[in-house]
Automatic annotation (TrEMBL):
PROSITE patterns: CS, SGS, TPR. This is Protein SGT1 homolog. The keyword Ion transport does not apply. Residues 120-145 are annotated as: Disordered. The gene is 25496516. InterPro entries: CS_dom (IPR007052), HSP20-like_chaperone (IPR008978), SGS_dom (IPR007699), Sgt1-like (IPR044563), TPR-like_helical_dom_sf (IPR011990), TPR_rpt (IPR019734). Coiled coil: none annotated. It comes from Medicago truncatula (Barrel medic). Residues 266-357 form the SGS domain.
Amino acid sequence: MASDLEEKAKEAFVEDHFELAVELLSQAITLDPLKPEFYADRAQAHIKLNNFTDAVADANKAIELNPSLSKAYLRKGNACMKLEEYQTAKTALETGASLAADKSRFVKLIEECDELIAEESDTIPTQEKSTTQDPTSKDVQPEDLSEEPIVVVAKPKYRHEFYQKPEEVVVTIFAKGVSKESITVDFGEQILSVNIDVPGEDAYVFQNRLFGKIVPSRCRYEVLTTKIEIRLAKAESIPWKTLEFNKETTIAPKAIASVTATQRPTYPSSKPKRTDWDKLEAQVKKEEKDENLDGDAALNKFFREIYQDADEDTRRAMKKSFVESNGTVLSTNWKEVGTKKVEGSPPDGMELKKWEY
């Protein structure tokens, strides 16, 4: 029974139903509380839901049950990095790397930890080298150092990442010590624009068309001491595969020429130009109106519209029936599907087979 719940949890995870995955794994743990893989997998689902403290607790339990389970250390390292506990994350990742057959993911995250730890302590290794002098050269003047200039590799000014919930997407821009007065955030129907204009520095501009539509009036942001946290309210409760619009991974209007993922706006001065949001949104709406969908695209759009306008019971029924039937049944009647398992119903002439992991 516990193994069946584990299989269903994996299916839910593949479909980005992370809350359902947590629920199924919790049921599996109740039946078999000594299997470390259940805790490690639930930790990953918690990370996707931004429950980082719960993820660390599950990873620790998995490690307690099986100290050689490398993926448990990977989960703990990931969650601790989100909580900005970089030293703890590094220790967990180094232990996991010593146990894993494939160390590439661990190595990449350990390098990122080292960079973040260095940023926190304001440590610049090249400075030590530049101030070290040969004991025999007592009369070296400061201008003599110009013969051996220090080469500094430029890094992006600020980095960003995102995670999502069914109803919102949270974008984090790691900008330490930036005042609220230097930050401008604007929301469009499918546009996010962030400008950071610190006096004496080049302006930072993040402006992209988003994967899906948002509700600008319900979007908000908060400026913290180490980061800017932006909460985007989804117009539709569908999972975003990426943060930025990509015509290859989303069913949406074609990207307008002025805002694309590969061509970002540039400005002649440090002060960005004001964006004409009305014009951008009018173009997006026009393309949507002119777009003729057929086949799977039209069907997917139809299902999204049903889901968007449905009440909570209808949405639960759609999720449960789709997952349990392996995508062959989509019911909107919660009273019908809420009390029993939904069996698969393949089209005529086709056979339903269990997906192999």
